């Protein structure tokens, strides 16, 4: 994939009067290292607290394009280092390094505990034909962590419940409702049904009503302390069924 520059001694052999002379020629001035780029991608940009995300990184030359979507463009040499900067911080820390010779498109599986920016640093190594590089600020990956509502549903009692993690003591959980036919649609309008307050352990629970019209409910926690907005995993569907009319003579 790459051409390696070599220093060398040019040996000039002159045959004169039966003697052999060796003339050493100094190497040419060292060329400036070629510019490089490092790329980063991830399977998610928002993760629930306690769940995992997979991050990919690689290094290449600018002319080769995106080495993640085109793995053949990834350089199979040097070292790739994943770095992280927590939201609100100004310093970057190294998370883990991979040898590109093992896998030109390296990957890391993380369980983030707080929202953070991620980037990849690529050091091509010796000889210094290519310059080290770090993911540009514009392409740095922000992965936000959302609180986990750990929601569940007891059908027999119409009880919607859960526990917010990490620590979320005596704080609000908003129960919202909609009559939209498809609650997953972004065009659905959700309105407030009830505001709950968690226990000291972060637990919450509510008994949902049943209306004559099909209604969906969900739980919501506002963003706070660096965490992204959080929603329940489930949309709870309720409807009050009326007995069928009976024909009499």
Task: Give me the secondary-structure topology.
Blueprint: E1 12-16, E2 19-23, E3 37-42, E4 46-48, E5 53-60, E6 79-86, E7 93-99, E8 106-110, E9 116-123, E10 133-134, E11 141-146, E12 152-154, E13 159-163, E14 172-178, E15 191-197, E16 203-207, E17 215-221, E18 230-231, E19 236-238
Parallel strand pairs: 4-11
Antiparallel strand pairs: 1-2, 3-5, 5-8, 6-7, 6-9, 9-10, 9-11, 12-13, 13-16, 14-15, 14-17, 17-18, 17-19
Give a brief outline of the structure:
By secondary structure, the protein is mainly beta. It has strands at 12-16, 19-23, 37-42, 46-48, 53-60, 79-86, 93-99, 106-110, 116-123, 133-134, 141-146, 152-154, 159-163, 172-178, 191-197, 203-207, 215-221, 230-231, 236-238.
Averaged pLDDT, please?
Answer: 86
Helicity range of the residues? under 10%
Quantity of strands, as a count? 19
Kindly report how far apart the N and C termini lie. 89 Å
Strand content: 35-45%
Oligomeric description of these chains? single chain
Low-confidence stretches: 1-28, 244-249
Radius of gyration: 30 Å
CATH level-4 homologous superfamily of the largest domain: Macroglobulin (MG2) domain
Could you name the CATH topology of the largest domain?
Immunoglobulin-like
Order of helices and strands: EEEEEEEEEEEEEEEEEEE
How many structural domains can be distinguished in the coordinates?
Answer: 2
H/I helix tally: 0
Main beta-sheet strand count, sense and barrel state: 6 strands, mixed
Shape: elongated
- Top CATH class of the largest domain: Mainly Beta
């Amino acid at each position: 994939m790459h051409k390696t520059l070599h220093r060398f001694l040019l040996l000039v052999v002159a045959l004169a009067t039966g003697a052999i002379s060796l003339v050493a020629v100094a190497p040419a001035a060292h060329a400036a290292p070629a510019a490089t780029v490092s790329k980063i991608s991830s399977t998610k940009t928002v993760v629930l607290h306690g769940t995992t995300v997979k991050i990919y990184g690689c290094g290449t030359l600018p002319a080769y394009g995106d080495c993640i979507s085109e793995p053949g463009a990834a350089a199979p040499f040097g070292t790739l280092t994943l770095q992280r900067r927590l939201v609100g911080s100004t310093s970057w820390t190294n998370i883990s390094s991979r040898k590109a010779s093992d896998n030109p498109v390296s990957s890391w599986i993380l369980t983030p505990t707080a929202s953070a920016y991620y980037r990849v640093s690529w050091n091509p190594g010796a000889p210094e034909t290519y310059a080290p590089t770090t993911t540009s600020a514009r392409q740095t990956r922000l992965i936000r962590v959302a609180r986990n509502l750990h929601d569940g549903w007891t059908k027999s009692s119409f009880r919607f419940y859960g526990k917010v993690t990490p620590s979320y003591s005596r704080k609000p959980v908003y129960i919202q409702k909609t009559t939209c036919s498809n609650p997953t649609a972004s065009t659905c309008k959700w309105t407030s049904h009830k505001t709950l307050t968690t226990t000291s352990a972060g637990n919450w629970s509510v008994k949902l009503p049943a209306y004559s019209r099909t209604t969906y409910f969900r739980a919501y926690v506002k963003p706070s302390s660096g965490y992204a907005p959080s929603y329940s995993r489930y949309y709870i569907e309720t409807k009050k069924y009326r007995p069928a009319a009976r024909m009499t003579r």
